[in-house]
Structure to design on (331 residues):
């Protein structure tokens, strides 16, 4: 009964629709005339099975009618069209009494190889990362990475916390470091937030990340603001991020990153991007220009492979080409 009441009065925010049967169906659902709402949504979906707004709304009708199985089918069908449609995720959360993707755990293991120009010694890297939900709003995670560069090895560890205190706000923080560091940070602190200012398949998200790192050679403070805009029914999104880095005793260095993602369905994603700006990968600030591309491809119900390729040109040091392969398990 409680679930039915929530379903009737929940107000998923939808993309703009023309004044038509859709508006009449939404009004019928709000007024509790569920048979009429269902008939209208059925007709719309029969005419256009890719209508994610109608699928989400019909899912809430089925929830109010007590048909959780059919409601779940509609929410998942909407996510197949618009993988980041938050109202469909909220509907699934009502069914499962769990949060959205923030409350799902994962494990990622992989490595990278970098071919350096000019005969410089190639770089190697291996890492293991995990995140585990401790409640609907909070998840804890960590990462350990091994680096080999120029014949020197560093092992870096990091602990993370992620919180989702409201539907439109995500928070994160981390602390980490490298014992006996040669080029990775001896100590690193970071904090960030995402704020969704527009919902639905055309969502807009503002981001801000800050970090302080103490390297063997210098300390570095970085600030990274950004904006992400979804379009194409939520299957496409573009991200632009500013980069600001201040080394100890130095001047502000600025740059920009641009990236385009495409997710035709859940756990299937392609991305491409470019960046020009300061970088601290070796413990010193240097100018870097890079282009990159990658993907997430499902290997089954829980497993995915994440390949990526990048090319990097440095003002100081050797240019390089990096190949990265990671395996992700969701639970």
């Amino acid at each position: 009964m409680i679930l039915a009441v929530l379903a009737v009065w929940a107000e998923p925010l939808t993309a703009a629709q023309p004044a038509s049967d859709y508006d009449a169906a939404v009004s019928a659902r709000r007024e509790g005339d569920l048979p009429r709402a269902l008939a209208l949504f059925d007709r719309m979906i029969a005419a256009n099975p890719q209508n994610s707004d109608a699928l989400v709304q019909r899912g809430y009708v089925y929830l109010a009618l007590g048909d959780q199985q059919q409601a779940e089918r509609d929410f998942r069908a909407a996510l197949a069209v618009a993988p980041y449609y938050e109202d469909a995720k909220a509907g699934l959360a009502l069914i499962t009494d769990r949060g959205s993707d923030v409350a799902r755990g994962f494990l990622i293991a992989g490595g990278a190889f970098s071919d350096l120009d000019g005969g410089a010694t190639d770089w190697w890297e291996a890492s293991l990362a995990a995140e585990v939900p401790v409640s609907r709003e909070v998840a804890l995670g960590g990462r350990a990475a091994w680096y080999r560069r120029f014949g020197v090895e560093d092992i870096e560890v990091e602990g993370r916390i992620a919180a989702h205190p409201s539907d439109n706000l995500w928070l994160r923080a981390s602390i980490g470091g490298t014992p006996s560091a040669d080029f990775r940070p001896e100590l690193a602190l970071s904090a960030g937030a995402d704020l969704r200012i527009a919902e639905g398949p055309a969502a807009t998200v503002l981001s801000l990340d800050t970090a302080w790192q103490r390297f063997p050679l210098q300390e570095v403070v970085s600030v990274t603001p950004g904006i992400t805009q979804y379009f194409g029914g939520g299957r496409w999104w573009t991200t632009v991020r500013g980069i600001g880095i201040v080394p100890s005793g130095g001047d502000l260095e600025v740059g920009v990153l641009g990236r385009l993602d495409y997710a035709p369905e859940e756990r299937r994603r392609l991305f491409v991007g470019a960046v020009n700006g300061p970088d601290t990968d070796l413990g010193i600030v240097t100018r870097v220009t890079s282009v990159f591309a990658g993907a997430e491809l499902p290997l089954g119900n829980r497993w995915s492979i994440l390949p990526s390729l990048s090319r990097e040109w440095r003002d100081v040091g050797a240019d390089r080409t990096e190949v990265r392969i990671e395996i992700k398990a969701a639970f």
Observations:
- Residues 129 and 262 are 24 Å apart (CA to CA).
- The chain has a mean pLDDT of 87.
- The helical segments are 2-9, 21-30, 34-47, 52-65, 68-81, 86-96.
